[in-house]
Design brief:
225 residues, SDR_fam, oxidoreductase activity, SDR family NAD(P)-dependent oxidoreductase, oxidoreductase
Length: 225
Amino acid sequence: MTNEGMTNSTDKIALITGASRGLGAALAEALAPTHHIIAVARTSGALEELDDRIKAKGGSATLAPLDICDQGAMQHLCRSVYDRWGHVDLWAHTAIHGAPLAPSGHVDPKDFDKSMTCNATAAQRLITYVEPLLLAAENGTALFFDDDAPGVRYFGSYGASKAAQMALVRSWRGETQSTGPRVVIAKPKPMPTGLRARFFPGEDRAPLASPHEEAKKALDLLQQP
């Protein structure tokens, strides 16, 4: 981890997995005035650009250029967060792998395996690692994002892995209603992200929703009972 800014014991901590671009970056910027941001993503350059925008808002961030599919790296990250801050107030999981679209009978096995590893298995591991950090906070909350891809033609790899992720998250939400942490699921409108551009090249992006607007809606959702 690279620390970019000073924090103290009273800071709220927001862990954002998939923070470098799109919705994850928009959430980091929206939370920056009230939270110290732990920004996780594979792309160092994009994280550094995000850090500049967070600093411009008077906030601070710790940059973690890591792959969420790397089990050892995620274990080390969460242990480091515990050792330094002892808790996480909000975990927003936006990291996702989008395999190339293909008919279900022609899905590349490597693409399918990577989708399941990054979108389902990594999410399960992160729930295991992050849950204690959320329970150590006063009102620890996890925020996940659903979409309509499961079952859509040609989205077999992405859709199956996303459906598995959300089934896991919904089970976790049900299991923790009386004990915490709180688990919230948002469903943003389609946004002009890099992932969507790979799925729909040449699409008119003008009608798509702004990641910053969808981030605000998701954070507003957290204020509801």
